[in-house]
Automatic annotation (TrEMBL):
Keyword Transmembrane part of the UniProt annotation: no
Active site: 115
InterPro entries reported for this sequence: Lysozyme-like_dom_sf, Lytic_transglycosylase_MltB, MltB-like, SLT_2
Transmembrane segments: none
Protein's organism: Methylomicrobium album BG8
MF GO annotations: peptidoglycan lytic transglycosylase activity
Signal peptide: 1-18
Gene3D superfamilies: 1.10.530.10, Bacterial muramidase (1.10.8.350)
Biological process according to GO: peptidoglycan catabolic process
Boundaries of every Transglycosylase SLT domain copy: 20-311
UniProt KW keywords: Signal
The protein's name in its UniProt record: Lytic murein transglycosylase B
Superkingdom of the organism of origin: Bacteria
Lineage of origin: Bacteria, Pseudomonadati, Pseudomonadota, Gammaproteobacteria, Methylococcales
Amino acid sequence: MPVRAALLCSLVALASCAAQREKSAFIDAMVAKHRFSEDELEDVFAQVKIRDDVLKKIAFPAEAMPWHKYWKIFLTDARIKEGAVFWRLHADTLKRVSEQYGVPPEIIVAVLGVETLYGRRTGYYRVIDALSTLAFAYPPRSPFFSKELEQFLLLCREEKVSPLQPSGSYAGAMGMPQFMPSSFRIFAADFDRDGKRDLWRDPKDAIASIASYFKAHGWARNQPVAVRVFAKSEDYKALLNDKINRDLRIDELESARVEFSRPLPLESKVKLLAFEQERGDELWAVLDNFSVIKRYNQSSFYAMAVYQLSQALLNYRNSSPYE
């Protein structure tokens, strides 16, 4: 066997041994901390698969691409039209949820559109495989995914579901809104009061759960998310959020010759973000509700895609004679 091939095999074997040690330590902790049966957990994890494709996907997320490619994934005519249909079918639920939680229908529908194409693509990985792979075989995020695996097993016990049953994304996110297990346990809602929080098949529960999450993270009712701005000089560059990382006053931006596409109250506090287009940056002033969307996914690209899809859905619905 060539030296490099032998070395590679040795490294793979070492990684496998390390994953096995991590798994054993995790089982011991679940037994001690939460009184799980060691035999039952051993049986479950004997059926878990460590998946190479999960490791590949976590290393190259969609948010790694430039904005001018990223937004085109979500701002399509098909996604907008399908979202309008979803809105029409669930208009009553969206209205009731919006009134209760203060989150606009278009934001809720846009999250579902970006996450799972309105529930059509909820993921095909077994959640326990995805979480175990990332907890035991992906050291950069092992602490985070170990906690999510812990939460997942607690969730399955609470919901009386086999841990081998739920499916989701390569990162272990579940259902129409793609909740991680920790979020599912805290924020998932049984809106139709049927005794189950079904985020895979029940749009009512999924809609209310998104609104529940946003409200808990500080969504401000009837407040803006973002405003497009235009720079008349290069002075704006010193105020970009990646340079100063603080809120800006409206007059600070105006002094840098930044013009707003629509007015904001003078007391508003914003952050200035630049999104790379093929012919220069697209500038946005974002407010606190934008930061709330980022609590759902930390990427500014994600939050902007949700916001822009929400506005496209709203415009389509307002202009269509069938809505």
